[in-house]
Structure formats: C-alpha cells, structure tokens
Amino acid sequence: MKIIIISPAHPLRGGIAASSERLARELQSDGHTVILYSFSLQYPAFLFPGKTQFTDDPPPPDLTVKTRINSVNPINWIRTGHQIAREKPDRIIVRFWLPFMGPCLGTALRVARWFSSTKLTITALVDNIIPHEKRPGDRWFARYFVRACDDFVVMSHSVGNEIRQFLPMESQRADVVRFAPHPIYDTYGEAADPTVARRRLNLPEAVPLVLFFGFIRAYKGLDLLLEALAKTPGVHGLVAGECYEDWQSYQDIIEKHRLSERLHLFTDFIPTDDVRFYFSAADLVVQPYRSATQSGISQIAYHFEKPMIVTDVGGLPEIVTDGVSGYVVKPDPDAIASAIIDFFENHRAATMQAVVRQEKHRFSWKNLTNALSD
Known about the structure:
By secondary structure, the protein is of the alpha/beta class. The protein has helices spanning 15-29, 74-86, 102-115, 138-146, 157-164, 194-200, 222-229, 248-256, 275-281, 296-303, 333-345, 349-359, 365-373; strands at residues 2-6, 33-41, 65-70, 91-96, 121-126, 151-154, 177-179, 209-213, 236-240, 263-266, 284-287, 308-311, 326-329. The protein has a 7-stranded parallel sheet with strand order 3-2-1-4-5-6-7, sandwiched between helices. The two termini are 13 Å apart.
C-alpha cells in the first residue's frame, strides 16, 4: 500500500516523533511506500513550555518527511488536505495525542477524503484522547477529530473506552477500536556496561540507583518519587528530562528532606544518543504518575531490560506484572518507597530482569502494524 503517516517527525523531537519514524521503518520493511507529513508549526509558544521543539540530530536518510502542517492556520489545513489527496494514498495513519490538534487534523483529513480519487481508509493511532491537563474546548476538538476517522488503534484499553464516548451509535462496532500495546523503543542502541554508564554521567558507582526519565510535568508525579526517596535512606535518584513547569516546588522538597547528595539532576532534554547511558546506569525505573494512558518510558525500560515501578493509573498496569517484572503501586510516596525497599533489600534485580527479558517479546512492532492494517 501507499501509506501517509500524519505525525510529528524530524526535525521535531520527542517520543511521538521518534515512534512514528520507527513505525514508518517497520511499514517500509513490510513493503509499503510510506510518506510522513509533519508540522512546520506544531505548537504555538503558549502551549510549549520547553526550550525548543526541534532536534539537532541529522534528518533520517531512509525516510521521506514532508514538513507541511501549521497547527493554527486553517488555510494551511485545507492546502495540506489537498496535497495529501494528490499523493493518492491507500491509507492514512494519523497520530493524535492532544485535543488542540483536533481542528487542524480533523479538517485536513476531511479535505483529503473529499478530494481523494482512490478509496481511502483513515486510521487514527491515538496516544491520548482526553488530556492529562484539561483545557476549554477539549471534548469538542476531540469529537471533531474522531468523526473524521474510520477506525482507531489504541495502546491502552482506557483510551479505547474514552474514544467510544465520541463515536455515534452506528459506529460502535467492536472492531472500530483495536488494541495493540505500545511497542518497545528499540532505537536507542544497545545497553552500556553499568559502570561505564555511571562514570560517563559522573554518578557514584556502588549505590542503589532509581531513574525518573522524561519530561517533568505535574501529572508525572516526580514530587511523589522525591517524597519516597526521603523514606529510603541510601537509595540515590537519577532525574533525567526537561522540566516543563516551575522547578521550585521540587526544589523545596529536595531541601526539606536534604536529598541533594542523593539526587542527580539532568534537567535538559536528553539527546537520543545519550538515552542508553541513563537506563544502563539505573537499577530500577520509576514512573510515579498521577494519571496516564500508556507510556513510552516503559517501553524504553523494556528495551534495556530494566524492572519498573509504575502506578496503577491508566494503562500502566497492563504493561508491568506486579511482583514479577516490577511493581504496580498506588500513586503514593509510602507505596513507592515500600516497592523500592523491597527491590533492593530482597535483591530482586536478577530475577525481575530475567522476567523483563522474557516479557519484552509481547511488545513487538509487528503487533502494531497488524492492528493498523486490519
């Protein structure tokens, strides 16, 4: 088939861009022709609290990326829809992660369908439909997008249930919303030797070390992990990711509990080539989220065969088997601390890592491409 993927892609950075590029490669390996339509303007400044939306990495030589979409220009939406129609695709796969994108993507998809000279299937790969941080208009924007699509693939059952709230009764067939777990992020290279990784990051080599990785936002619960570390003396924390909000509230916790000597902060965006060192250095990955759908961080942890602590929110419990490949706990500092203590005091690393190594095979890219092509 000829497939158009509408998604952030190079030179935009972040997990969605990285995973869509990986998806394009998987589809190409299946023999499909794939073109990525990305954004010339993804977010206006008021919606992007980070330092930059762009990567310094070179463009991927094996992918066709067309930087076309302006998220706030309705004339551009119509023009982009026309351009996609002229590509004569058999299928459009469109990523959706934020209701703000609903008017832009919903309009471009409708125009592409109206002017397509071929039978066109529009499949949405939905990361989130109801956002963690709500804004006025979210539900209307989401509904406008949903009704431009033929079917949906979700990576957590909770998102699938939310999508059905926006579908008309005549579209409530079981196969309209299909599930495939988030595939493993296998684009970050091989694991490094833990000692080498810790030396590279200037970390102490002989201490228990837990990792919080990814953008820092209130719903991700870094404050819960900091409070948990106050209850786990001797355990060090590694925080790696750009802060998207005021850091002061976290600094207050650090100072209150005198955590600075046990906390190692890397609060800039982590370059792709460096990701492996952070995961390789850590003994345990902690995702103390207050709310979630699925998380790409879990799939990076699986790639590097690291046990995890996740909270029992959204689709996270679908990924980790409690007490076997990691821990599923309440989003509460005491619960997180208890899991950390159990992991280190009872020497769970080797047995849990062996299970993670087995379970990672559940999360193949082929499962996702099969769901997208059904």
